[in-house]
Amino acid sequence: MAELKDTLAHEGSMATGRIRVKRCAALSYVLGPKVVYPLSVGYKSTAASFWSTQEQSVVPNCVVEPVSTRDVSAAIFILSSLSIYTKFSDQCKFAIKGGGHTPQKGAANQPAGVTIDLGALKKVDISADRKKTSVGSGTRWVDVYTKLDAQGLAVPGGRVAIVGVGGLVTGGGISFFSGRTGFVCDNVVNYELVLPFGKIVNVNSSSSPDLFKALKGGSNNFGVVTHFDFKSFESGRFWGGEVTYPITTMPQQVAAFVGLAGAKPYDQYAALIHNYAYTAGNWFILNNYEYTKIPAEPYPPVFKPFTDIQPQLANTMRVSNLTDFTLELATNSLPGKRALFITLTHGLSASLITEIYKIADTALQPIKLAAGLVYSLSFQPLPTAITTKSSNSNSLGLDASDGNLVLTLITVTWTSATDDAAVNAAANAWYRDAKAASVKARLSNEYVYLNYAAPGQDPIAGYGAGNQANLRAVSRKYDPLQIFQKAVPGAFKL
Prior knowledge:
Elements: H1 2-12, H2 16-31, E1 35-36, H3 41-48, H4 53-56, E2 62-64, H5 69-85, E3 94-97, E4 114-117, E5 124-126, E6 132-136, H6 141-150, E7 153-154, H7 165-170, H8 178-181, E8 188-194, E9 200-203, H9 209-215, E10 224-231, E11 233-234, E12 238-246, H10 250-261, E13 270-279, E14 282-291, H11 304-307, E15 314-315, E16 318-320, H12 322-330, E17 338-347, H13 350-364, E18 374-382, H14 384-387, E19 405-414, H15 420-440, E20 444-445, H16 465-478, H17 483-486
Parallel strand pairs: 2-4, 3-4
Antiparallel strand pairs: 1-2, 5-6, 6-10, 7-11, 8-9, 8-10, 12-14, 12-15, 12-16, 13-14, 13-18, 17-19, 17-20, 18-19
């Protein structure tokens, strides 16, 4: 290691152009074939594993493919050291990739820098008492659920099979079980974390309560999480699926949504994604219903106002397992296209939901002929039943005073880069006008769900001034040289 430190110090005095080569060479010196370069099979595999073509098109100088926490530690030591020696040169910046589902360019892939691909950290280990499941941060949720379904267990996690564990959890995370268990991050009991300069620590409520809370919503701002320990629970097959309706049923749909989302008490087993999808020149309504009560209860009363709506153009409702339902949602989220998310949080109101749909339709008009366009607007209940489960132990800033909220998302996918500017302009126009409508209705809320946020949005500020200040203080304590603020530009900074 002393020889490596001498090498790094020598590199720090070199011209920037040579740093870009020597940085990857230093990583190869320690990690050997776990560092891959353009044109290699491993490098191409990492590029292809990103969800959006914006991220697939990024060209890092090399990719680190660690197979253990020690490998991650070594890479972070080298990259932290070089960042300091070169005064945070652009060529020494790096990105951390879990599942790679965030669409914006550079979120988890560093142009002309280093990308650390955690894809090989994908173990799923169940404790002897079945109450805890340890999951590698490079695992995709489909692999977690496949193992747990076979054991009659579950953990709160992502609803789309192909999404990665790491990014979803550190951004908060919503699951089919959130009515019972809160945000996904609320169910993590321990994080294995690599800090700046490679120190490996276990972070939990006893060891480091300040850092433990910061990691619950703090994204990639404190280090690299290599493993999560989740609370697991007995589960099994439950009722769920997807129903498609014509847009003419919208008045009934909105009334049903407001009834479910505002119910007192909220049915803790109910999970709903209410979607308006524009494709092939037409709007459709496509709802995902999951009712996680065991034993399975088909067509429960809470969903009757929806399932009674006719006509139904397609219906996949069934009793099945968690893996199957997340694979179904993944069919609506296939990789390999240009993609964009932008999100808004607001209070519960039928008139506001209707107005936001009209705004989405207006924003769509300039881009409706874009090649390969699929444009969707989704509404998800975010009731106090979810936000108050662990509001004092996460960093998200939501509590009972916010009331019952709605998490609203625009997702756009398309195929041609020539449409990028127009699509981004349309999405921003939707956000501007929808936000204004929520303010006018006195139903605006500043929370921005990090996993849905667009470039230019500020989810960390949306946690509230107190939480943002606390996150910054924790960052200064555990990362005094601000490696993860200055050398890791992807995602959302503090």
